[in-house]
Design a protein that fits this description.
Two copies of one chain form a homodimer. By secondary structure, chain A is an alpha+beta fold. Chain A folds into three domains: 5-386 and 397-424, Glycosyltransferase; 426-525, Immunoglobulin-like (Sandwich); 530-664, no CATH class. Chain A has helices at 42-65, 67-74, 88-105, 110-126, 135-138, 154-170, 176-192, 206-217, 220-232, 265-282, 285-301, 333-350, 353-367, 410-419, 498-507, 658-664, and strands at 28-29, 35-37, 385-386, 426-429, 432-435, 441-444, 449-454, 461-468, 474-479, 488-491, 494-495, 509-514, 518-525, 530-535, 545-550, 553-558, 572-574, 580-583, 592-601, 610-612, 620-629, 641-642, 645-648. In chain A, helix 3 packs parallel to helix 14 (410-419). Strand 20 of chain A pairs antiparallel with strand 14 of chain B. Chains A, B: This is Glycoside hydrolase family 127 protein. Chains A, B: Residues 35-422 form the Non-reducing end beta-L-arabinofuranosidase-like GH127 catalytic domain.
């Protein structure tokens, strides 16, 4: 490829986020315009809401928060001191990236195009001659470049600039921003490349960005720098972090020898996305193995049922294995997004279902919950429980979604993810096409077109119309989610043979290999009974509790659905009672509700905090217990919520049968 | 009383910490030399260890950490910049206070006397002419007085200076330091007194100190300023705390209208100690009511089984009601000490047992655990669980006690408490003498002398020899701890009548009123079976778990007592099996151990973090489960620990009887 950014072709829509070059093996992402998500489906509706509400809201907030003015300030167009976080530029970049993906799915979005144009021009003006661009440093002559790599976030911001520029190019919206990003990247290569300073940024992000820039430009030096950053990290090049320790920024152990995800969750996860990118582009199996090993640490010991990660507010960190408190879950929105991105890269590299499963889990729960129904307020932290009496006065753990944050990393991160959501739905390789996520819409690959008619995730029925002009056989691979214990499939009315289905249950993908020439109808049923889910016994924080999960969707109970005089913390679930599902159809805030049998004490119990065990059972009264999708909580009225519900009776135990106390009530 | 500090009589030993004037109603503390704790008993041994190990260690650390040099720096005796926390002076003051109490119990401790002498002289030199004394501000001309009341800790430090000076006077060790403290207090009166600046310190502490200074000097202005600080707090005079909110320093709601303990636990608790002090000296019932109301918030919803308080590392705060995670318990040592001090003041004011109960709970658990067996290393945070795989690399949550901390508030706080421990054992009033805490030793009051022969808290048998020259009757009141469900008492071999015992069980004190002239023997038996304790159902974090408690002592299980190949997190407790107690006598690290029936899975379970509920029961094998006093954990080898143990079987439930799976193993 040519070396000058303006030579890069920007005419047609390119691929979405994380698009490995041909050098990488594995699945290939599709072009931005290859998948259309229908607004009749949930993912399509999210994209529409993102386009009409979230993204415009973010653009407004960039003005109101002063993030754009910070850039103007750096070049004297606006007076006054830099405001907000020192990485406020990254809010601008992530919003730019969101606008680019939005333009990729809707080239007619003039507001997005105009935002990209004007902001790219501002950035070009603000950039110094040698490529340096950081409003926090530039706006105050007493500040020096790269003087605080631990907390300065300069390379982190450069990374987001690069990702935005790559998105703009892939969306076919010109290469002006890529020129800016290329100059910033070239400066990073000059300062930190081989022979330069041995250093890393306190907040990983530029690693994955540099690989993406390599992919967009073909310039090896960006890949080399990304690999260099990956390899330099973990050697203690960053200073000691007095408050949180060196693990905070993953500078304690090199990733190749690490066995546990540690420290600041978003930093760890962005790093791991970059690690996979470097691994697949350099064919570095050791590095890919490290990423898969750390995936097991993350998903077998340090992930919430919602896909959220990061158990501690303190240091925004992963915490110890099995330390997963629902009430104090930090589960930062950005961490869930980073996890989604990391899993996407591992899915492309390996094709293994477990990565798509975790994308889906995070998407419908930890990510989706972060946006209000109207798309204009957000959670930063995504706990699985909010207590009666919670002090929500501080944005660290508010009682409701807020319209913006002093540290505004999450909202534009949501915007960029949702704007590019169609990119994550399907892939292809030489053998065929793979569908990973299901929502109403259509998928076009080199093998053919697949129209998806479904109300997934509300119902597990999929009707796929496959059209192909190819006579030679290819494989349509359909993900059977890990939560699914039975599946039925037919093609043009003919049931698929049991051996294929059995293999699908074991391997995770239903592989239908045939000539698809013409038009075929594939019917898939993924039954969605409500599942009572328990946690590993080592997860102390939710012992004796269950969660109600249906399909990919975790449910929660809210004070809003209880009798006014009752207290959510008093509610228990009768696990032996039947559970029903009510599908109200589209067009309602909560399309599908789950109703279980709850139990409430009929009298106030002791106010003693500790007492003789066992606590005498209270007489209980039955209660219709309505659970709604966790991601929809907090959209009606503020109040307590919980995902994990105490059970009555507990399993595998002896004692007084519950029915005795129930019948007293 | 005279107005000049040097006029204060310092010849004889005065009272201990928190000594209300005659104006206050309630119980009166005894003189420092009125109680002797025998080193054969646990409290006496702690005092001896404190005198020979902890206090000398703290004195050494003041040198090594640079805290003393900071004061020398302030007046140019040493070069260089101030080191450590900006409130490092308070480490010096608390150590001074500890040395004073130590001198009060052992006037022959020349090292303590010399430390007080030389350090008082240094402070007198360092103090500015108008009374200002703060090494952080004085050591750098660019810093100004009182410019950052939120975080500057200047009045906090002044408070600890005052407390140290009061202790020195009460110990009969001269009034040089009181002169320094009086000048500092007079400056505070000038700047912040009525007509001066309306402001409060971000960290309460000076309130209780000023009342104590009023008690030691009789100067009304100190009491007035204390009351003023109490009344000004909660009006938002402090700036917004960006990270933790205004509740962080209790500046959100005035204490008179507050209904919940909130924010930074130590700040809240020091404030409440001062609130009680002001209330009793001014006869302000509304203020005392507020303290008792907040006590209920604290002890009914926000206190660990160990008496520890402060559930969050983030903001070192109390957290929401019932938010009591054992693993992430912050439970700062200083908070437990502050709680002890607050309860002591409430006990003096009201005579109610519940306050003595909480003193005892904190003392034997949350406070005692903070010191290593050798007295020279300390916990700052006192969790009730340490997990396998815990990252203890950071002092925020270390895996073992540390010899000192960058924020060194806790070790000298322990030293001052333990040095004055005898002061908290007994009180008197016009009607008689009250014994609140039991340990081998002797108590002398105006009514007579009581020699206490007991191995409490290891055994509940007390033999009291009461000697009195008074012929008129007086009441010997003996606390019956709240954990005690039966008590037997005899005087000179005659059982005490059942009505008196019944009243004692209800009221909390066994009141024996008679003429005690001559010598009498009182035998009390407080039976100490091992109690299985459960938490209120709203304490989600320990659902399905029990704790093993005996007398006032909470127990814990440690990896050190398990077979090497086993994992502490796999252990469950068979609550239906017998529990035995082994008393190895004194002279061993763990005099009394509790042995219960544990259960361990015989095979590794699923590594899945979440799965179908209920998780199939694993075959279990029996295990001798040794529990030791929680306060002694971490004295053998580092490793996992837990107080709350999962139960098998759980109570009041149905299902497969446990015995089936047990018999498989």
């Amino acid at each position: 490829m040519a070396d000058h950014p303006t030579d890069v072709s920007t005419a047609a829509a390119g691929p979405g986020p994380a698009s490995p070059t041909g050098r990488a093996t594995g699945l290939r992402p599709l072009g931005l315009d290859a998948v259309r998500l229908d607004p009749a489906g949930l993912l399509g509706r999210w994209q529409l809401r993102n386009a009409t509400a979230t993204l415009p809201h973010c653009v407004r907030q960039l003005d109101e928060s002063g993030a754009l003015d910070n850039l103007r300030r750096a070049i004297g167009e606006v007076d006054g001191a830099h405001v907000g976080m020192r990485f406020s530029d990254s809010d601008v970049y992530k919003t730019l990236e969101a606008a680019a993906w939005q333009l990729g799915r809707d080239p007619g979005d003039h507001a997005a195009r105009e935002f990209i144009r004007s902001t790219s021009a501002l950035l070009a003006r603000a950039q110094e001659a040698d490529g340096y661009l950081n409003s926090y440093v530039q706006s105050d002559p007493s500040r020096s470049r790269w003087e605080d790599l631990e907390e300065g976030h300069e390379l982190y911001c450069a990374g987001h600039l690069i990702q935005a520029a790559v998105a703009v190019v892939r969306a076919g919206a010109g290469s002006d921003l890529l020129a800016v990003a290329g100059r910033a990247a070239d400066l990073a290569v000059e300062v930190f490349g081989a022979g330069g300073r041995d250093a890393v940024c306190g907040h990983p992000e530029i690693e994955t960005a540099l690989v993406e820039l390599y992919r967009a430009t073909g310039r090896q030096r960006y890949l080399d720098l990304a690999k260099r950053f990956v390899d330099l990290r973990g050697q203690g090049l960053l200073g000691e972090n007095e408050r949180f320790g060196r693990a905070y920024f993953q500078d304690e152990v090199p990733v190749r020898s690490a066995t546990e995800v540690t420290g600041h969750a978003v930093r760890q996860l962005y790093l791991l996305a970059g690690v996979v990118d470097v691994a697949v582009e350099t064919g570095d199996q050791q590095l890919l193995d490290a990423a898969e090993r750390l995936w097991e640490s993350a998903f077998q010991t340090k992930t919430y049922l919602t896909g959220g990660q990061g158990s501690r507010h303190w240091g925004e960190s992963f915490g110890d294995p099995y330390e997963l408190p629902p009430d104090r879950a930090y589960a930062e929105t950005c961490a869930a997004i980073a996890s989604f991105q990391w899993n996407w890269r591992l899915l492309l590299a390996t094709g293994a279902r477990r990565y798509a499963d975790e994308m889906e889990r995070a998407l419908y729960n930890a990510i989706a919950v972060a946006v209000s129904a109207d798309g204009e307020s957000f959670f930063y932290s995504n706990p699985l429980q909010l207590r009666t009496g919670h002090d929500g006065s501080h944005e660290d753990a508010p009682s409701q979604r807020l319209s913006w944050y002093s540290c505004a990393c999450c909202p534009p991160n949501l915007a960029r993810l949702i704007a590019s959501l169609q990119s994550y739905v399907a892939t292809e390789d030489a053998g065929g096409t793979q569908l990973h996520l299901y929502s109403a819409g259509s998928v076009r690959t080199s093998h053919g077109q697949i129209d998806v008619d479904t109300r997934y995730p509300w119902q597990g029925h999929l009707r796929l119309t496959v059209r192909s002009t190819r006579s030679e056989p290819w494989t349509l691979a359909l993900r059977v989610p890990g939560w699914c214990t039975a599946v039925t499939v037919s093609v043009d009315g003919e049931p698929v043979d049991p051996a294929t289905v059995d293999r699908a249950m074991a391997e995770g993908y239903l592989r239908l290999t045939r000539s698809w020439q013409g038009s075929s109808t594939v019917i898939v049923d993924l039954p969605m009974p409500v599942r009572l889910v328990g946690a590993h016994p080592k997860v102390d924080a939710v012992r004796g509790c269950v969660a109600l999960v249906r399909g990919p969707i975790v449910h929660s109970i809210e004070q809003a659905d209880l009798p006014p005089e009752s207290c959510l913390e008093d509610v228990a679930l009768d696990v032996s009672a039947p559970i029903t599902v009510t599908d109200s159809g589209e067009g309602t805030l909560v399309p599908v509700t789950v109703t279980a049998q709850g139990l409430l004490p009929t009298a106030a119990g002791s106010s003693e905090l500790y007492g003789a065990y066992p606590v005498p059972p209270a007489p209980l009264t039955r209660l219709r217990l309505v659970a709604i999708p966790y991601f929809l909580w907090g959209n009606r009225e503020p109040g307590p919520m919980r995902v994990w519900i105490p059970t009555v009776p507990a399993p595998s135990t002896t004692g007084t049968p519950l029915s005795e106390s129930k019948e007293k009530s």
